[in-house]
Design a protein that fits this description.
Elements: H1 2-7, H2 12-29, H3 38-50, H4 55-72, H5 97-105, H6 110-122, H7 126-130, E1 137-138, E2 143-146, E3 155-158, H8 161-174, H9 192-206, H10 214-228, H11 232-252, H12 261-270
Antiparallel strand pairs: 1-2, 2-3
Amino acid sequence: MIEDMTVRNLSPATQRSYISAVSKFSRYFGRSPDRLELEDVRAFQVHLVSTGISWPALNQIVCALRFFYGVTLGEALIPERIPYAREPRKLPVVLSADEVVQFLEAVSSLKSRAALTTAYAAGLRASEVAGLRIEDIDSARGVIQVRHGKGAKDRNVMLSPQLLGILRTYWRLARPRLYLFPGRDEDHPIDQTVLHAACRSAVKAAGLTKRVTLHTLRHSFATHLLESGTDSGSSRSCSGTIICRRQRATRRSPPIRSGRRRARSIACRWR
């Protein structure tokens, strides 16, 4: 199965997800997955629904099983008989401009604040923010190059002057070498779990009552673009205006308290 995914150039994240799903399927029945049949798949789906699994997570497992049976085992008829769950259509949670400012003010870490600001101002996913390299920031053209985004596709997204200014300040303070937001090892990107944890902490610190995740920033970005117009000029204006409001607000805010002198110094300079 790994070879099948590799030759089809599935992303490492997708490969890990598929392997995990098929392994979970196998463990549930205590048998090798190639000995399990369509009836077993249906029983497994019923079990998953009973656990309260989210619809996106359930459909991700369906994708993995369809790939396993259709590609790896060559069972052409089985995949079409493994149904996707019909996900209830719900409007995504969206933050107002004031709530975006409130949220970003509550991010305590310099690196996390710069990363989450980038997630909002460029409309990026967590994996895309984590994978950014220094060379991906094209200040001359005003774009950020996103490598291996969803579907393993590259694309360019807008880089507003306000976000560029924030990233330049961050770079002067943090001096990253390869990845814009490195992990503990400078040669590796920050782990996405760190960004999600920073997001949860900021939501709590900001006192937001909405169910906010890092992906909420992306939804909010898209909504604010629609509200301001979708041409490139409006796009830059929309994200730039909110970031400027955050900068003005944070200049009036007291400095972040920290247990470490260097962290406190960086936080104050960042503000």
